[in-house]
């Protein structure tokens, strides 16, 4: 099996240390059909049964929040600057001898009123965050703070709604309608947009000796989404080619408090993490995006009205789902896939090229859903990229009632109202679940390996479950998987192999191609 070592700190060392140290104990799942069977009311109308007593030793949740104001700022500085994200969690887990502990999560003062969370780092405790009978998902999409609704037209967008709220079901139905009605356009529009991207990369590589993936991918991703989902070419509208740059600035206004731009600490921390960037600074550009979506999505807005959602509110939700969820995901995850595949080397490239081309040839020379089902290695590579570096690393949920949660070693009592936080990259690299968990293993999910897909967590739920009206799985989750598969398929229809240089960016990895070996067939 092809394997590459992950750059993150090894959770394996942590799990080993948990075995060695004594504890202070106290007694006392391809594109699926969207299902609409479980409505929001069905998930909340019946009282949930009391949790069964745990068979594991009970333990008080270790850790503390420090002094008010001072503790959260100290943790924030450790998270972003003094330790870095991964070491922030690793060091505390080792200190407390536990993958469940208390800490403060950024941003803290003065943006978040209560940064106190219970951290979950292992694959056993993490899934409680997906159980909407146990945790509330209201206004926790970005964590312990919520961006100003002035950035979304004055509305709380679907991502911030709990399934118990009636509007959640209406808006999710709208997104299901959009995706279903435009599904036949996805494959051809992806081919068109990313063929243009490949031509751009080749021209830049020939001229400069290297080619940056970021800007070209941003333009291709936005063009693809606009054409596939709304039948509109942005270049033919007043928006022109400005969509990606506007979206990137808009994302900064929302995610700035929990991200770093690599600026000096004394400058970045007060600018991004202590005070909110005033929303009025992006108002004019956001209006340009809104106008584009309003003019392009008439058929979807008509359906929204039929569902009981005003056109304006629906448009802001369509914009968010397309620009934040979909475009943001492609901006972060597409470089991630190519980074890991690039690092794996020419042997994996040759296997992927052979598999992709054979499957396409046997299906009439066209990329289809059927042909992609005949590419087990390609599918495994995409799932492995989701596992080793999930595009959504942070998950939150507030306990609806007193809970007992379990790690591999202990059980813990969580009080009603406490905020649970899961760091997904550690949960998906749990060595008690995955062999060689810190390595990129290209064929990990081939054959019997498919049984491990229930532990691939990246979209408010496991890969083996799909979005419903009653859960918080992203409505377009299966489409994101499809887009990612198409990237690998189209890439290896065009090229035999490639070399990349990998760097860091504020949102994921940055890629620079240093060679592209065109397909030899």
TrEMBL record:
It comes from the Eukaryota. Heme binds at residue 474. One of its GO terms (biological process) is jasmonic acid biosynthetic process. SUPFAM superfamilies: Cytochrome P450 (SSF48264). InterPro entries: Cyt_P450, Cyt_P450_E_grp-IV, Cyt_P450_sf. CDD domains: CYP74. Keywords: Fatty acid biosynthesis, Fatty acid metabolism, Heme, Iron, Lipid biosynthesis, Lipid metabolism, Lyase, Metal-binding, Oxylipin biosynthesis. Pfam families: p450. Residues 36-55 have a biased composition (Low complexity). The keyword Cell membrane does not apply. Its cofactor is heme. GO terms for molecular function: heme binding; iron ion binding; lyase activity; monooxygenase activity; oxidoreductase activity, acting on paired donors, with incorporation or reduction of molecular oxygen. The keyword Transferase does not apply. GO terms for cellular component: chloroplast envelope; chloroplast thylakoid membrane. Residues 33-57 are annotated as: Disordered. Belongs to the cytochrome P450 family. This is Allene oxide synthase 1, chloroplastic. It comes from Glycine soja.
């Amino acid at each position: 099996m092809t394997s590459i070592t992950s750059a993150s700190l090894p959770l394996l060392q942590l799990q080993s240390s948990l075995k060695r140290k004594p504890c202070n104990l106290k007694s006392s799942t391809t594109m699926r059909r969207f299902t609409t069977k479980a409505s929001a009311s069905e998930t909340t109308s019946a009282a949930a049964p009391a949790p069964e007593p745990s068979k594991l030793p009970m333990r008080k949740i270790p850790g503390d929040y420090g002094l008010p104001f001072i503790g959260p700022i100290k943790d924030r500085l450790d998270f972003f600057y003094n330790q870095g994200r991964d070491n922030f969690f690793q060091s505390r887990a080792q200190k407390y001898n536990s993958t469940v502990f208390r800490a403060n999560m950024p941003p803290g003062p003065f943006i978040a009123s209560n940064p106190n969370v219970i951290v979950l780092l292992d694959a056993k405790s993490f899934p409680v965050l997906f159980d909407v009978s146990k945790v509330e998902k209201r206004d926790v999409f970005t964590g312990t703070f919520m961006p100003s609704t002035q950035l979304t037209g004055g509305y709380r967008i679907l991502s911030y709604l709990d399934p118990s709220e009636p509007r959640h079901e209406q808006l999710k139905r709208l997104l299901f309608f959009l995706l279903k009605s435009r599904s036949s356009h996805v494959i051809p529009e992806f081919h068109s947009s990313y063929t243009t991207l490949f031509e751009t990369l080749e021209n830049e590589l020939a001229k400069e000796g290297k080619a940056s993936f970021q800007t070209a991918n941003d333009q291709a991703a936005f063009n693809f989404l606009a054409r596939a989902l709304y039948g509109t070419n942005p270049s033919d509208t007043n928006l022109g080619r400005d969509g990606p740059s506007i979206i990137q600035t808009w994302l900064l206004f929302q995610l700035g408090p929990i991200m770093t731009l690599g600026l000096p600490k004394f400058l970045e921390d007060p600018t991004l993490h202590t005070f909110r960037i005033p929303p009025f600074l992006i108002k004019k550009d956001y209006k340009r995006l809104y106008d584009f979506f309003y003019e392009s999505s008439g058929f979807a807005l008509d359906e929204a009205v039929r569902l009981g959602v005003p056109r304006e509110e629906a448009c802001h939700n369509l914009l968010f789902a397309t620009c934040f969820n979909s475009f943001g995901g492609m901006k972060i995850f597409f470089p991630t896939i190519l980074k890991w595949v690039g690092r794996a080397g020419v042997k994996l490239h040759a296997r992927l090229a052979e598999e992709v081309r054979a499957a396409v040839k046997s299906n009439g020379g066209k990329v289809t859903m059927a042909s992609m089902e005949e590419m087990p290695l390609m599918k495994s590579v995409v799932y492995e990229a989701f596992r080793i570096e999930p595009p959504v690393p942070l998950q939150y949920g507030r306990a609806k009632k007193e809970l007992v949660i379990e790690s591999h070693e202990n059980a813990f009592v969580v009080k009603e109202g406490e905020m649970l936080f899961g760091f997904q990259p550690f949960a998906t690299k749990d060595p008690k679940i995955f062999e060689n968990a810190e390595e990129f293993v290209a064929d990990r999910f081939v054959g019997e390996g498919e049984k491990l897909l229930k532990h691939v967590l990246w979209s408010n739920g496991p890969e083996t479950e799909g979005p419903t009206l009653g859960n918080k799985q992203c409505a377009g989750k299966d489409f994101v998987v499809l887009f990612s598969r198409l990237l690998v398929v189209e890439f290896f229809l065009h090229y035999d192999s490639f070399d990349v240089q990998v760097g860091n960016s504020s949102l994921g990895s940055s890629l620079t191609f240093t060679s592209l070996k065109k397909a030899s067939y």
